[in-house]
Amino acid sequence: MFENTKAFSGFSVDDIPKARQFYGETLGVKVSEANGLLTLHLAGDRDTLIYPKPNHVPATFTILNFPVDDIEVAVAELAARGVRFEKLDGTDDKGIFRQGGPLIAWFKDPAGNFLSVLEQSQD
User: Fold this and answer.
1) What CA dihedral angle connects 96, 99, 104 and 110, to 10 degrees?
2) Whole-angstrom Cα distance, residue 59 to residue 51?
3) How far apart are CA 16 and CA 103, in angstroms?
4) By CB count within 10 A, which of 50, 61, 63, 90 is most buried?
Protein backbone atom coordinates (compact mmCIF):
# COMPACT_ATOMS: atom_id res chain seq x y z
CA MET A 1 0.00 0.00 0.00
CA PHE A 2 2.75 2.52 0.90
CA GLU A 3 5.61 1.19 -1.24
CA ASN A 4 5.57 4.33 -3.44
CA THR A 5 4.59 6.86 -0.78
CA LYS A 6 7.22 9.46 0.03
CA ALA A 7 6.87 9.25 3.80
CA PHE A 8 8.57 11.80 5.99
CA SER A 9 9.29 12.27 9.65
CA GLY A 10 8.47 15.12 11.98
CA PHE A 11 8.93 16.32 15.52
CA SER A 12 7.70 19.13 17.75
CA VAL A 13 9.32 22.23 19.19
CA ASP A 14 8.00 24.99 21.41
CA ASP A 15 9.29 27.91 19.30
CA ILE A 16 9.39 27.84 15.49
CA PRO A 17 11.47 31.06 15.08
CA LYS A 18 14.16 29.69 17.44
CA ALA A 19 14.10 26.36 15.58
CA ARG A 20 14.42 28.15 12.22
CA GLN A 21 17.46 30.10 13.46
CA PHE A 22 19.11 27.04 14.99
CA TYR A 23 18.58 24.60 12.14
CA GLY A 24 19.02 27.17 9.35
CA GLU A 25 21.81 29.37 10.67
CA THR A 26 23.64 27.40 13.37
CA LEU A 27 23.49 23.99 11.68
CA GLY A 28 23.33 25.29 8.09
CA VAL A 29 20.38 23.16 7.01
CA LYS A 30 18.17 24.51 4.22
CA VAL A 31 14.80 25.37 5.78
CA SER A 32 11.45 26.71 4.60
CA GLU A 33 8.42 27.84 6.51
CA ALA A 34 4.76 27.66 5.53
CA ASN A 35 1.53 27.71 7.52
CA GLY A 36 3.43 28.00 10.80
CA LEU A 37 5.39 24.81 10.09
CA LEU A 38 9.11 24.51 9.44
CA THR A 39 10.56 22.04 6.95
CA LEU A 40 14.17 20.89 7.02
CA HIS A 41 15.36 20.07 3.50
CA LEU A 42 17.97 17.41 4.17
CA ALA A 43 20.27 15.82 1.59
CA GLY A 44 18.78 12.93 -0.36
CA ASP A 45 15.29 14.50 -0.48
CA ARG A 46 14.67 13.64 3.16
CA ASP A 47 12.47 16.49 4.28
CA THR A 48 11.60 16.60 7.96
CA LEU A 49 8.67 18.54 9.35
CA ILE A 50 8.97 20.60 12.52
CA TYR A 51 5.69 21.66 14.06
CA PRO A 52 4.87 23.89 17.02
CA LYS A 53 3.37 22.30 20.09
CA PRO A 54 2.46 24.52 23.05
CA ASN A 55 2.86 21.68 25.57
CA HIS A 56 6.01 20.36 23.89
CA VAL A 57 8.04 17.86 25.88
CA PRO A 58 11.59 17.33 24.56
CA ALA A 59 12.38 13.93 23.12
CA THR A 60 14.58 11.86 25.43
CA PHE A 61 15.96 9.92 22.45
CA THR A 62 17.88 11.02 19.36
CA ILE A 63 15.41 12.40 16.83
CA LEU A 64 17.88 13.32 14.09
CA ASN A 65 21.38 12.05 13.30
CA PHE A 66 23.81 13.95 11.09
CA PRO A 67 26.46 11.65 9.55
CA VAL A 68 29.90 13.29 9.22
CA ASP A 69 33.21 12.13 7.80
CA ASP A 70 35.26 13.44 10.74
CA ILE A 71 33.56 13.82 14.10
CA GLU A 72 36.45 15.80 15.61
CA VAL A 73 36.08 18.48 12.92
CA ALA A 74 32.27 18.51 13.16
CA VAL A 75 32.27 18.84 16.94
CA ALA A 76 34.86 21.64 16.82
CA GLU A 77 32.94 23.56 14.14
CA LEU A 78 29.61 23.21 15.91
CA ALA A 79 31.13 24.17 19.26
CA ALA A 80 32.54 27.31 17.61
CA ARG A 81 28.96 28.10 16.52
CA GLY A 82 27.74 27.85 20.11
CA VAL A 83 26.49 24.26 20.15
CA ARG A 84 27.01 22.58 23.52
CA PHE A 85 27.59 18.84 23.49
CA GLU A 86 26.06 16.64 26.14
CA LYS A 87 28.40 15.07 28.68
CA LEU A 88 26.85 11.62 29.06
CA ASP A 89 28.21 8.38 30.50
CA GLY A 90 31.02 7.19 28.27
CA THR A 91 31.66 10.51 26.52
CA ASP A 92 35.02 12.25 26.58
CA ASP A 93 35.61 15.90 27.48
CA LYS A 94 34.41 16.97 24.01
CA GLY A 95 31.19 14.99 24.36
CA ILE A 96 32.21 12.23 21.93
CA PHE A 97 31.16 8.68 22.81
CA ARG A 98 34.05 6.32 22.03
CA GLN A 99 33.00 3.08 23.74
CA GLY A 100 31.69 0.97 20.86
CA GLY A 101 29.76 1.55 17.67
CA PRO A 102 30.31 4.63 15.55
CA LEU A 103 31.84 7.69 17.17
CA ILE A 104 28.88 9.85 18.15
CA ALA A 105 28.26 13.14 19.98
CA TRP A 106 24.87 14.34 21.18
CA PHE A 107 23.57 17.87 21.49
CA LYS A 108 20.16 19.49 21.87
CA ASP A 109 18.13 21.90 19.79
CA PRO A 110 16.61 24.99 21.49
CA ALA A 111 13.48 22.94 22.35
CA GLY A 112 15.61 20.35 24.18
CA ASN A 113 15.32 17.57 21.58
CA PHE A 114 18.37 15.30 21.24
CA LEU A 115 20.34 15.41 17.97
CA SER A 116 23.67 13.84 17.09
CA VAL A 117 26.62 13.89 14.78
CA LEU A 118 28.09 10.49 14.09
CA GLU A 119 31.16 9.54 12.16
CA GLN A 120 30.58 7.40 9.12
CA SER A 121 31.57 7.41 5.50
CA GLN A 122 29.13 9.44 3.42
CA ASP A 123 29.32 7.45 0.18
Assistant:
1) -60
2) 14
3) 30
4) 50
